[in-house]
Structures
1.
Amino acid sequence: MVVTHGSLQPALGPCALTIGNFDGVHRGHRALLDRVGAKARDIGVTSCVLTFEPHPREFFAPQSAPARLTRLRDKLELIAAAGIDRVHVIRFEARFAALTAARFIEEVLMRGLRTAWLLVGRDFRFGAQRKGDFATLQGHGFDLGEMPDVLLEGERVSSSAARAALMAGDFERAERLLGRAYSISGKVVHGARLGRDLGFPTANIPLPHRPPLAGIYVVEVDRHGRGVASVGYRPTINPVPQPLLEVHLLESNPALYGQRLRVRFLRKLRDEAKFNDLDALRQAIAQDAAQAREYFARHG
């Protein structure tokens, strides 16, 4: 899959296109991507996704923006796995936010991407002040398709529903909505070695955006096995301003600095808590690790 960023240069050929944030690349998104891919093959053009970084709500109202289900890198990997040929990532900033619906159609859809077919939902909005809608897209030289909602057990599959399930610790429901177990990936950085001093060394992964969960969890780490993880701000000692994922592996203690880990969340054990002293923190971590081992003993 080809990934392009920034200013759009005229595409070499026409495309079948869809547009969105695609946070989580859930089962609804996957149905959308599958239709775009199938249409592109049918009419002999490139399949393409147009997405944004940051999320528009992070630009307009960062304090109330939704938690991120996926980092950009993970989102692109999931879109590639769906068989899409190209993704263009538009930097969502003031100039782009001020683009009128008419200019968006002319500059982005027609001149930049050479859209032959566009698939969006009936409630799709675009352009300055969200004035562009489905009707606005009609009659511009490209065919237009409408994507219906994808329902799961009567519920609309959405990023909001997946976030709500994760916040509630309902990983089975989140997996049904996402179509896969929820995971976070990131690069391990050097920390303050507090976990090692407490007897529970951790791999520390800073999270640039607020994730949709917080607390202590039973996890699995690709290629490294089982573990227990904390997601939060480390309130007892050395608090951090940005959320941090700390993973303690139960069966090994390899050197992981600089490696990119993928951590799958299986069960919530408790909320993050501030303890009175390091002994209380050590006892809590030991109990978390014991509960994680019990979980894996029951679940194989």
Note: Residues 236 and 277 are 8 Å apart (CA to CA).
2.
Amino acid sequence: MPEQIFAHFANYLPDAGILARMKRIYMDHSATTPVAPEVLEAMLPFFSGKFGNASSLHSFGLEAKEALEASREKVAKLLGANAEEIIFTSGGTESDNLSLKGIALRSREKGRHIITTVIEHPAILETCRKLQKDGFEVTYLPVNADGLADPAALEAAIRKDTILISVMHANNEVGTIQPLEEIGKIAAEKDICFHTDAVQSVGKIETKVNDLGVDLLSLSAHKFYGPKGVGALYVRKGTRLESIVQGGGHEHGLRSGTENVAGIVGLARAADLASEIMASEAERLTHLRDRLAKLVLEKVKDAWINGSMTKRLPGNLNFSFKYVEGESLLLFLDAKGIGVSTGSACSSKKLEPSHVLLSLGLKPEECHGSLRITMGRSNTGDDVDYVAASIAEAVARFRSISALGR
């Protein structure tokens, strides 16, 4: 991180007393969400009183096994799947790895070609790069200025040796929702396994596996008010994977290791809650999203929204501001009690522009001036007004000290 950002920012940091009294607004729900009270309540018994190993045959183990299988039913219901098609994992990254490596290893005699997109999460992109080192070939499809992949281009990229297509349902940075239904039909016609990373969409919008046409779907509990460290992989009946973790043969032999029963119970309760309120919450967040977009674009010149506004997650906004560093905005807003994220990954040595925003056609300097805001259940109209005003204040202040912004 550039030292000058900290030097200037330090002048505006409130003291500890002010911080303790400050209103705090969390708008980074795509990074993680708080555990819902109902979820925590459901989990607590399985940390102590109901602590058994689900593989044990005595009553303690059977009690845990019963909770495990009941949870499998609930997660399956959220996806419109069958319980036996749900494999519990440690989260989205493991689910993605099991999908891609599992299919690649199982199908390597049939073919070694995989198709994905340039805007996937690193859990997909890094796994694909590892597979390339192991002799597989990967086609990375481009996206348009809205962040959408073209199903026709995907179909044209299919080869005789294509064994897997992996396209995320909704992008974690710009919220763009991909045309999975169209892609699913193409994959089915060509008899190619189809995986989606649905970590950002499950619990926020409908993700019925038969409607989407997917054979594999990854999800993570902490993105929809469940605990961290637990997730699931939907595996359509008949889809054959090779396990990447060897051991006691848990989870139908696909994911060895003693199950995190407390976390899985939390995931299931979060799935139940999402099913109950998803439609109304999506409508509410869409209204707040559009209101915040309007306010910010009215208050701030030389600003725009990245990604499609029509095919977008309800609570997601990704702004770019000319002549301002996103890291500076993030820190200024944090000092005002607002939690958001930026489109640049900060390290001690350099700022890397977002690969997603670059793929949309933005210049590196435009990527660095980005801000991702993702709203959730706790956010209100008053929050939106406060955040919009704070963004306008921040941009004006940093542009006033920038030679480019004057």
Note: Residues 6 and 69 are 51 Å apart (CA to CA).
3.
Amino acid sequence: MDTTVDGARRTPTAVELAGLLRTAIVSGELVPNQRLVEGDLAAEYGASRGNIRVALSELSVEGLVERIQNRGARVRAVSVEEAVEITEVRAALEALCARKAAERVTGDDVAELQDLASRMKDAVDRGDRESYSEGNQAMHEKIIAISAQKTAAATIQRLRGQAVRFQFRLARQSGRPAVSLPEHLAIIDAVCARDPDAAAEAMRLHLESVADAIRASSK
């Protein structure tokens, strides 16, 4: 953690702790059903138990953590079936956002999306799955931002958090980026062409493909 000017350790805030724990859960460092003991986490992160408690509450709202009466908190286990259902709901909401983005997109937005497309193509050519995953996330976030659909954006964020562990694994599967890249490019092309129907359909097809890949990963 950061230090103050005089060298003393700074206690991490609840927001910072939520971010650290979220990353640990998404990356698999903290595994499904693992107990999250406030005292242990406070010692590990050099934090107060109060801030740990607030961070766990925030992650509980996001669906990453569950609290069990008289047993404390643990990493929530999401089944394949639930992850598929979450992705299908996301498909409906993100299709709406893609439609609205195609209606609202500006010249600057088009340039940024085209730059993202170029970077994602380059990442696939180089076999850099980490950079491709980052570009994937940035593309979805940019389209949601362009859409200006705040209610949908907040709902998508919560849904994504619950199933993100599955998508994290998918994004790093050998060959998966080559499958999803044309889907992402179709979304970008439709939004940049200001074609709302095509943008919504491209997003729906992409997330249906993600749901299918999650199903297949469990076999």
Note: The chain has two domains: 14-75, 80-217.
